[in-house]
Amino acid sequence: MSGEAERVMVLWVPDWPVQAYLREHDSELGGEAGIEASAVPDAGAETVPDPVPHAPLALIAQHRVVACSPDARAQGVRLGLREREARMRCPELAVHPHDPEVDTRHYAPVLAAIEQTIPGVEPLRPGLCAMRARGPARYYGGEEAAAQTLIARSRELGFPNARVGVASGRFAAEQAARATADDPGVAVPSPGVRIVPSEATTAFLGPLPISRAVSTDFADTLTGLGIRTLGALSALPEDAVRQRFGAPGLAAHRRARGLGPAHAAEVRPRAPEQELTVGFAFEPPLDGADQLAFASSTHAEALIRGLIEHGLVCTELQVELTDDIGVRHERLWAHPTRFTETDVVNRVRWQAATLPRDPERGGSGIAAVRLTPARTAHAAAHEPGLWNTAPDERVHHHLSRLQSMVGHEGVGTGELLGGRFSSHRQRLVAWGTRADGRTSAQVRVRQRDGPWPGHLSGALPNTVFSEPIDAALLDPGGGIVRPDSDDLLNAEPTRLSVEGMLRAVAVHAWSSPWPVRERWWTGGTDSYRLQVLLEDGDAWLLRYETGTSTGKWIAEARYA
Amino acid sequence: MNRVEAVRTLQERISQMQPLRLGDDALPTPAQLRPLFPGGALRKGSAVQVQGSLQLSLAMLSAASASGAWCGVIGVRGLGFEAAAQLGIALERFIVIPDPGRHALSIAGTLSETLAVVLLHPPERTQPGDIERLAARLRDHGTALIALGPWPRAESRLRVTASRWSGLGQGHGMLDAHEIVVRSEDRRGPRQHTVRFQSGRLARPAVQVGAS
């Protein structure tokens, strides 16, 4: 169960959010933060010159300080301080909103650069990463030399006050990176490097406050019990901690004793980034979907082969077509199972075929194509089972062929949705989009099992007009029948005309109009639905829309 | 050998000699609609012409669809999927091509390789050659065709002659039961049938009114 944790090296860039913020905004201004500092390696002094030549700066989220520059800290600004309090303590403080995305974005190239020096880096959070110490120590000739190499590298990158902590276990190493030179058990062989020898781990961790190792709530509990330091926690018997606090308590206890996690690796290096995207350009630009599809086929093959090499399949593909004047057409294509070469080529063809044609400009064409697997899955999860539940391969093959004839949207299956009106309760789903009925995130599918007051029950119309057709329901005098304020018709309907389909056919029977009031709280319009049976046995579903000034009848559906 | 025994052995020999029995090429057909077909069921590779009722043609393929076959509809715009589902059609195996354009017949031919029943709204103008070609492909693949319009090679021609709804009054009620009178023309000669739908589903078996 126990066992000494392995030696871990942690690289910490203090105040990373501030650094990232300055990089983001200096690149806008054309300058480069901290470059001048890197040119002056200040070996002697422990305090490196301030690389931030700006006014005191703090980043704020939810009215609290998330990060602040050293200048600001010197004036009493602390993390977690209220914005107003921070401004009071340091009136010239520049306050900006904190953007976590900026932190991550600017950390990615730093990580890549560190990986050039020492491979196998685990990013813990922006500004902090961990790596195993054993390998670099052997390569560079000792932990100290490895740490100094890392410091030198981060100075080159423009972080002169970066710190490296080396200790047994990730937690101890992180604490070491933050430690001051006179903490017990800490060796400072050169500025910015803190090494805690493995025999000094407990001595180093012992005096640290309990809040370093556990969450705030748990720390409060422990403090309430009189356990204020990690040493006090580690002095407790392990069994007692497990019984009293369960798994989180046990984890904290192990950290406090300088032991690694019981069942996991200390450092989990991130997988090196894989480039699966395929892009290619045409000179001269290609005009015509078929030509483009033909030209893409070898690249589609390369894309799929690259995926197979990584044991992956693609279930969502982003196709990006750039035309000769640089306009980019992007579309995300989903696939019910996985993309094959032909599927990829088909998607390129369909997308090219739907591009808007500009009659003003003859000879437009596609100059570049980029195929990005937007969503991938492990190939093992997509192997057909013994009893295959996916749609018949043969059906899929033929329907895909048809789609290349009539277009992607032209072939599909019906799907039932929730809604009040007939045309809202159904839609055609193009074949070859996602099998599980989910659509791309921006379309919120109406829940079918909602109450939907006013929807039709009983016999349902088998012809639903997707675009409602104008109709006229006439009373004996030739006027338009309308629903009145009591939700009843003001006259008996006698004849029905539907534009382009019916011309004043006698009405035999009709239902009472039932009102559908949608969004009345936002001033939505009322509508009334009415079933009408004609003299010749034809039945129609009509709707009266009050939206316009006079209101009008439209034919919604028909019983054919 | 007594007489019963003789009849039985003779029947066995006859059934052995007959190359094709009726049951072999019958698709699942709702019991209520069986009298409409000359063979007692929708047959594989045959064509049926239905005029005047989309509901009837959908009902014809509902049993095949429910039993796991893939069906398709070509050239019918604005099909009510809810009504189809109400009839028992499995929408996930129901291919819809609303606008086939001028390819309608060749699409039907392509689909015949995978689908058991194709519901086709034939285009206005068709070449007799195209129809022959499609008929041959349908026969080859054993796909039944239900044509919603004139179809020269139909095994059976069905036409709705009367349609009666009940449940709706003068300003009250709801459309509920629908009864259609279907006149069939096939090798049995002209006949008249009644098909009844209750709340969008097929109701009690069609009663044969009698030859007319």
Describe the structure.
The complex is a heterodimer of chains A (560) and B (212). Chain A has 560 residues and is of the alpha+beta class. Helices cover 29% and strands 26% of the residues of chain A. Mean pLDDT of chain A is 81; it is low at 29-52 and 435-443. Chain B is an alpha/beta fold and 212 residues long. Chain B contains five helices and nine strands; from the N terminus they run αβαβαβαβαβββββ. Chain B has a nine-stranded mixed beta sheet with strand order 3-2-4-5-1-6-7-8-9, with helices on both faces. The longest helix of chain B has 15 residues, at 3-17. Chains A and B meet through helix 15, strand 13 and strand 15 of A and helix 2, helix 3, strand 3, helix 4 and strand 6 of B. Strand 13 (412-416) of chain A pairs antiparallel with strand 3 of chain B.
Low-confidence blocks of residues of chain A? 29-52, 435-443
Mean pLDDT of chain B: 86
Radius of gyration of chain A: 35 Å
The coarse silhouette of chain B is globular
- Portion of residues in beta strands of chain B equals 25-35%
Structural class of chain B: alpha/beta
Can you tell me the residue ranges of chain B where pLDDT is under 50 for at least 5 consecutive residues? none
Q: Assembly type of the shown chains?
A: heterodimer
Number of helices of chain B: 5
Largest sheet descriptor of chain B: 9 strands, mixed
C-alpha end-to-end distance of chain B: 46 Å
Please state the CA-atom Rg of chain B, rounded to the nearest Å: 19 Å
* Average of pLDDT of chain A: 81
In total, how many beta strands of chain A? 21
Strand % of chain A is 25-35%
What is the CA-CA span between the terminal residues of chain A?
A: 75 Å
Helices and strands of chain A: which structural class? alpha+beta
Main attributes of the structure:
heterodimer; A: 560 residues; five-stranded mixed sheet; B: 212 residues; alpha/beta; 5 helices
